[in-house]
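Q&A log
Question type: sequence-to-structure
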Amino acid sequence: MINFKFADIGEGIHEGVILKWLYEVGDNVEEGETIVVIETDKVNAEIPAPENGVLKKRGAEVGETINVGEVLAVIDDGSGEDEEKTKEKPDDETKTPDKDEEKSTDKAQKEADEDEEETASVVGSVEVSNDVLPDSDEHAKPEKKETKGKALATPVARKMAKDLGVDINMLEGSGPNGRVMKEDIKQAAEGKQETPSASKDTTRKPQSMPSMPKDGIRREKISKLRQSIVRAMDTSNQLIPATTVMDEFDVTELVNFRNEQKARIKEEGTKLTYLPLIIKAVILTMKEYPIFNASFDHENEEILYKDFFNIGIAVDTEDGLIVPNIKNADQKSVLELAKEIDSLASAARERKLKLEQLKNTTFSITNYGAFNAKLGTPVINHPELAILGMGAITKKPVVIDDEIKIRQMFPVSLTVDHRVIDGGDAGRFMVKLKAYLNDPMLLLLS
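Response status: OK
Response body:
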């Protein structure tokens, strides 16, 4: 027998919630095949079987929390040994589920439907904001006359809808925030709930507020992703004395350049947004000011300069901010950067980001201009030393040689760790970045 434990997968992950079992008790499993998907506060981890064998017991069921080091599954590998072996994470003691744990497992199974909304808070529909500035339309979603967007629902509910032939995106969810529940799908399958396309009135009715307790306060558990964000923001706020420098760049030539190249790049099967051009300019600037691509070891009072450039892209999701990064971005062309941005956005949208895509970010970029905001004070992602915030590009009258001209202006915010980066350093960084974005040909020649 093998007592297969939930291993430490790194990045401070200590627990997870069982999202999906791919095998039932009694099924044959093969080494290397994914047997379970576990939701953590960073990624959905696909856990492979350690050996060939028969799944004898599941240590936790869907919706139940499992801690690192606890038995995830018991697999009969045919060894016939009475002593149980531990895979993945060595431990002095092997935890075998007792009767109380079995009762807990049964209870979790019974309460799965009731807890559906809680598990869906992280693994449900994930929407990604535009990774480019608002005056471009390449990431705009096409208008749909008959649908209301991607429904908020758990993967379990989505599979049920697919199996029953129900278009889940057409249902009015009865759960919190309009979440589509299993009962909604069952009713639709039985013809008890009309979809908007079948109804004469396709206007979506506003969701009624959940009933409030007598004290007027409704409590709601935050998702694991939000828990991770809370910890990150607390760490950043407690450790980093941050300061923000703001400026406005004339990027008229950059806008013209991008518009000229957009059609040609589209032939390559991708879309040219402003973001890869801005990333290119940021990297060239950081090569001249390497402190911005470093981190600070507070305990040892050392600055750690990186010779690799992993640029983090803040992605807005339904449950919170996720920041995957482009590995070795300095070694990629503008076209390659554009393709990888699309790839990361798709992975985030489908909740398929790997842990490696979130690790070792050296500098981050966030785009609040996607929501038509102009300026902001972005929060540094510890242990990075700086973050760039991008506002919306807009046409504005500008005085040039005593004449008023209409130019494309780009508001930019740079937040830095004031422990090791001074205001003068931030100012020089902004001046150089402005020079690169004022003349896009420098991005191609450098």
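Response note: The first helix runs from residue 99 to 110.
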